[in-house]
Hints:
The structure holds two protein chains of two kinds. The termini of chain A are far apart. Chain A is an alpha+beta fold. In chain A, 15% of the residues lie in helices and 15% in strands. The radius of gyration of chain A is 40 Å and the shape is elongated. Chain B is mostly beta strands. Helices cover 10% and strands 32% of the residues of chain B. Chain B has two helices and 13 strands. Chain B has helices spanning 151-157, 222-239; strands spanning 5-6, 15-20, 24-31, 36-39, 53-57, 70-79, 93-97, 124-129, 142-149, 167-170, 187-191, 197-206, 217-221. In chain B, the strands form two sheets. In chain B, strands 8-9-10-13-12-11 form a six-stranded antiparallel beta barrel. A six-stranded antiparallel β-barrel of chain B has the order 2-3-4-7-6-5. Classes of the chains: A alpha+beta, B mainly beta. The interface between A and B is medium-sized, with 18 and 31 residues.
Amino acid sequence: CRDTFCPGGCSDNIACDNHSNSMNCSRCEPITLELCMNLPYNFTSYPNYLGHQTQKETSISWESSLFPALVQTNCYKYLMFFACTVLVPKCDLETHKRVPPCRSLCKNSKELCESVLAIVGLQWPEDTDCTQFPEENSGNETCLMPDQGVEECSPSHFKCNSGRCVLASRRCDGQTDCDDDSDEENCGCTERGLWECPSNKGCIKHTMICDGFPDCPDLADEKNCSFCKDNEKVCNNHECVHRSVWCDGKTDCSDSSDEWDCVTLSKTPSSLLTIHKSASDYQVCADNWQEELSMLACKQMGLGDLPTTHIVQDQHDQPGRRKWLHLSSDWRHKNGSTLQALLVKGHVCWSRSKVSLHCVKEDCGRRPAARMTKR
Amino acid sequence: ILGGRTSRPGRWPWQCSMQSDPSGHICGCVLIGKKWLLTVAHCFEGRDNADVWKVVFGINNLDHPSPFMQTRKVKRIILHPRYNRAVVDYDISIVELDEEINETSYVRPVCLPNKDQHAQPDTYCYITGWGHMGNRMPFKLQEGEVRIISMDQCQSYFDMKTITSRMLCAGYESGTVDSCMGDSGGPLVCEESAGRWTLYGLTSWGSVCFSQVLGPGVYSNVTHFVEWIERQIYLHTFLL
């Protein structure tokens, strides 16, 4: 091996790695063939009973496709166990020799499943002549028989309630593969690679979490998505923007949500114009108020553009500066098309009166009356 | 519309026709404001350029221009960002016209529902459109009365496809009255108190309507989208 000469059966073998000679090539090696990872033994020895020299060769062999396909026909409960005993034979860790399957295991497999293969015109693998395997309890020679608890399906397969094995990737894929539909039972979100809404157990894609669109009924997928500072406010898409820019007439959240619902009317009978500027609610001082601004306010609320404006006297004595917004002196020259962009804080409201609005909803949904004609 | 009848001119003043050369009428649409209309997103598959579209209002017979007809170009198409063509979910789009319509008795917007106002199962509503009638395409606008079907019941008709909260089902198990190809984007409207009509659905998908595969039609659930619609209109009117 040191001289890069590895005889057949010895390549990639521990024996070579240890610079031993080719006499000891038949060594135990861990099973890596995914198809046979759930056997009651973990080591194999090559060549196997089908003449394959390595597990890699086995993995791409015809038999590696044949046996799992045959298992799905449910022809014999221990078919996959038998298949693995010939594909990756058990290695006796003391003698480093292969342990064969028992003849009865081979015969049962062949008798029960060969006919199924024949239906589709395929032949039972030639190298599995059962006479080469010893009888159970025949003197010194040991052979493998399945324990009662041996798994019929390989780890890459799902075992249906009926006993049939189907590819694990087909579990919970929305299509029934088991004859009894059991591969589509108890399909939780996790099994389907999805996220579960806590309230209704509905499943949503992971990409739908915290994307600004609620998908769970209790909005759980849109909770705990952002960690804004005290002086910040969270946008609908979970970005954080400074409170001072909330409803300033310029979009700061990339989804513009900082400029949504900035103009409202109070629920009181006086229906006071209310602006949610810098994340606080303000009423609007009536100083210099113009009718066109009332129109703008109503239009922003999606209401008709023929409002009725009332000026409501403030009941408090002091012309306070707090919680009032005042029309900017240069509002006509301001580059803003929203009402909130035209209003400023910190001015005295000399008139001590607020703007009250009654907007009219634009007419909709009416059909013309049918014309009547004399008969 | 299958199993419907020809509408009287002006009876559905919010119904419009999305047209593109050389085909002419491609989809229905619904007027919701002087500059705004709704249709479904799938109408724009492969033709989402606003320039190729025109919208016709106040028309009953597609083959005969009427004096009440108004035509506008399309300024902007806003597809729902979650529109999924594979499962036809979030099948809605907003269209901005290049100029406002003149409101007449033949061209008027329909009302949108409030965001908590849902079409009630077993109530009767109307669908309209110039879509296939089963044996031919009509020239005159057709109308059909359909029954609103609960989501659970609807799901049982479409086992192979999920009915989401963005969808609304209406029609009959026997498929006697149903929307069909060419009706997409058109309205499903229900009459509220005082003779006011509210838009609850936009024709979206269903079984192959003139085959023997029966079942109700599936409509985009407008109630689900009201907030999105209002915000998009606000955004494009005042901020962008």
